[in-house]
Write a structure and sequence with these properties.
The complex is a heterodimer of chains A (279) and B (184). Chain A has 279 residues and is an alpha/beta fold. Chain A is built from 8 helices and 10 strands. Chain B has a 5-stranded mixed beta barrel with strand order 2-3-4-5-7.
Chain lengths: 279, 184
């Protein structure tokens, strides 16, 4: 059985987390270029130009793209043939602690939703584990901003609501909260599963590049259709009015119960910061 | 849509000429406060305690910056979402605050208070935190240091790029701007 040391996990994740906060990455930059070309409002274009300039400064000067350096969300796909020497959860949290301290990232995590005391090191991360075939560990990190997270929603629709009900819920969610969530947005939609599964899928979808379509042609077409509908809402960059409200819509799907149609919409801002590492 | 160069402190006349969609380049002294600082300031006022800065003609920026790297003036410093400060903002307008800098929609009570007290709400580009930090030339923590990123800071800014998103004449760019581009 292959062995990975806990410290290797910590070091690798810390690097990914710092880098994701400084460098928004080539795919988001491409999305901004396309947004600038597509946006019809001058106020909207000015916002996009500022976003582009901001991305360059953050990358070149190694400073956070956004001051809200987020809740650390980690999707950990752990191969069933790999042994971690040490505690994997502790190693992941140590990586986040190191990143947020060494990288001058903001510590935004409170110990308790009611007592609200800052933990001081941005831990604990929210970790979603999945055991997969193979002997590798794949960590996908996302720095999830709080403002856009607050505009996210879940609904247990009736099966009779069907596809139209899903479209309506996505549109209503973005229509109500989009302006507050720092558009242009990346929208993650989790469809199916149970109540909690739909939310986790929506997070996974929100952390996917807006250029990677769902492999199922039906859902890929739905992603495109929803993107078009959402951009007709008129919210525009920063909500100032315009034709680019979303950079992309990503859908993740899971089988569901015969009485259920769960749908979750995770709203991500233009600071869609994520990164991956395989060990 | 006009372009204005504004210097702090702001007067009623400064505020009254501004209309939604106008661009503003702001220079001068502004103060930072967000959720916890607003709560403390307003609770202090209720007990008859003074605010940590001169509120007359002032602009308050809703921001919780990231930690400052050695050699820099401040960390990344983009706006936070404003609606969480809605319960506190009218109280500060009553005693002379002239402007708020943040992002996102305000409620009707805030908009009514803005019209009554001649106050402007200026939008900064959310997430453009490294860019905005470049406009901040000086930063001093002046109160509530224990609140960390939420402490009250006095900032000297130069040419901070802003947009009038809610004016004192009842205009709201989040409503009017969207109307222009919404396809029904």
């Amino acid at each position: 059985m292959r062995t990975v040391k806990a410290e290797e996990v910590t070091e690798a994740l810390a690097k990914v987390a710092v880098n994701a906060n400084y460098d928004i990455g080539p795919e988001m930059l491409r999305a901004f270029d396309e947004a600038l070309a597509a946006e019809k409002s001058e106020a909207g274009r000015e916002v996009i130009r500022q976003i582009q300039k901001n991305a360059r400064i953050a990358r070149e000067e190694c400073v956070p793209y956004c001051q809200d350096t987020g809740f650390a969300v980690v999707f950990a796909e752990v191969g069933q043939d790999v042994h971690v020497e040490g505690n994997l959860t502790d190693a992941i949290n140590a990586g986040i602690r190191k990143a947020y301290s060494d990288g001058y990232l903001r510590k935004s995590i409170l110990n308790d939703p009611i007592q609200r005391k800052n933990t001081g090191d941005n831990t604990p991360a929210v970790i979603h584990y999945e055991v997969v075939p193979g002997d590798k560990i794949r960590l996908t990190f996302g720095a999830k901003g709080g403002g856009s997270e607050n505009m996210s929603k879940q609904a247990m629709l009736k099966p009779a609501d069907g596809l139209e009900g899903v479209k309506k819920f996505v549109l209503e969610t973005v229509s109500a909260g989009g302006a507050n969530a720092c558009p242009p947005l990346v929208i993650g939609v989790g469809l199916g599963g149970t109540f909690e599964k739909s939310c986790i899928l929506s997070k996974k979808a929100a952390m996917r590049s807006p250029f990677h379509r769902n492999p199922d042609p039906f859902y890929a077409a739905l992603e495109d259709e929803l993107k078009e509908s959402l951009n007709k809402l008129g919210i525009g960059p920063m909500g100032y009015g315009g034709t680019v409200t979303v950079l992309g819509v990503n859908i993740e799907v899971h089988p569901c119960h015969l009485v259920a149609l769960p749908v979750a919409v995770n709203v991500n801002c233009h600071a869609d910061r994520h990164g991956e590492v395989e060990l | 849509m006009a372009e204005y160069i504004l210097k702090t402190p702001l007067t009623d006349a400064d505020v009254q000429k501004l209309r939604i969609g106008d661009s503003v380049r702001l220079s001068g002294t502004i103060y930072t406060a967000r959720d916890a600082a607003h709560k403390r300031m307003v609770e202090g006022l209720d007990k008859g305690q003074p605010l940590p800065f001169d509120i007359k003609g002032s602009l308050v920026y809703y921001v919780g910056p990231s930690p400052t790297k050695p050699g820099n003036v401040i960390g990344s410093a983009g706006p936070t979402t404003a609606y969480r400060m809605d319960p506190y903002a009218p109280r500060l307008m009553e005693i002379g605050m002239k402007g708020m800098i943040a992002k996102g929609k305000r409620n009707d009570a805030v908009k009514e208070a803005m019209a009554r007290h001649k106050v402007v709400y200026l939008g900064a580009t959310g997430g453009a935190a490294a860019l905005i930090a470049k406009c901040i030339k000086k930063c001093d923590i002046i109160a509530y240091e224990d609140l960390g990123p939420e402490a009250v800071r006095r900032l000297e800014v130069e040419d901070m790029p802003l947009v009038v998103v809610t004016d004192c004449h009842g205009g709201d760019l989040y409503i009017e701007g969207r109307k222009q581009y919404e396809v029904r």
